[in-house]
């Protein structure tokens, strides 16, 4: 067929990694490749009752169209119960509901990026954001990380060298995907200051902030934002139910209006029934209690994975020790290619995500990401043992 796609669509290519990971769906493979919450922790029984109550008491309204910005009671709950723990005092008028945080990322690109604009991000960064941004043909300036996240001196240097060209800073300050690293308060504060100084929007993507296993929760970058340059993306996917596809954007009204207008042209609104059911759940149950339950399980699995890596991985393999979130990040010798090693791993019926795709400008093939949240204890130990067997071949 001679189909004339747009230039933007013609430039979109299937991810090598996504094609590779289709193999991990086979039941015999222990897959550390996803970023999935544990399904056994979903509040299925509670949600059965909630859905029935919504249909019994609000049925016609719940099955009707609703406003693009979202169901007001849910936005009020988000402002009062989800943003305040992040150190942000806002009203429901600063909140708009999206179909997952991925939609908020895509909308951010649509709103702020023209072809050739510069996106500043951590190196490495979230693969889903990189792919969303790439369709708008920006240039990427990657900021190196240390154990405390984005190195601020490198960010300051990049902004000074590209003054007037940077259109967006994208960051995941809490338990970053893919590294699991967390940014300290002074760096968060400095990013907010730099955003105001250079008048550049910061997209603060925070899907993992509730999942802290050690220490106290850090205030968000948004909490240090005095002029409105920080746009906060939150979600119910990692702390509640990802299948509901409910997330939010928190921003100043002048900016939020653009997100609402873009959403009107994309899908009109998030699902009315799901929004009303989620709001009712929050009114009847304590989401924080549910989060504490999740955290205990994930912390145990994190510890088990790190202990197993210490036991079974050969000397010389480095990996992060996250204090929260869902991931650890593995560094191999520079001469090794994690994508090539994946073939050996699949032969041992174990899988991970090769790290090269997390770097928007390429390279760095000697890394891979492991997820520990959705595997049983037995599979974590056995899977890491199999990976250790693969790595031993290259570290003799």
From TrEMBL:
GO terms for molecular function: pyridoxal phosphate binding; transaminase activity. Keywords: Aminotransferase, Pyridoxal phosphate, Transferase. The keyword DNA repair does not apply. Its cofactor is pyridoxal 5'-phosphate. The keyword Amino-acid biosynthesis does not apply. Signal peptide: none annotated. Coiled coil: none annotated. SUPFAM superfamilies: PLP-dependent transferases (SSF53383). It comes from the Bacteria. Pfam families: Aminotran_1_2. One of its GO terms (biological process) is alpha-amino acid metabolic process. Residues 49-387 form the Aminotransferase class I/classII large domain. Homodimer. Belongs to the class-I pyridoxal-phosphate-dependent aminotransferase family. This is Aminotransferase. It comes from Clostridium botulinum B2 450. The lineage of its organism: Bacteria, Bacillati, Bacillota, Clostridia, Eubacteriales.
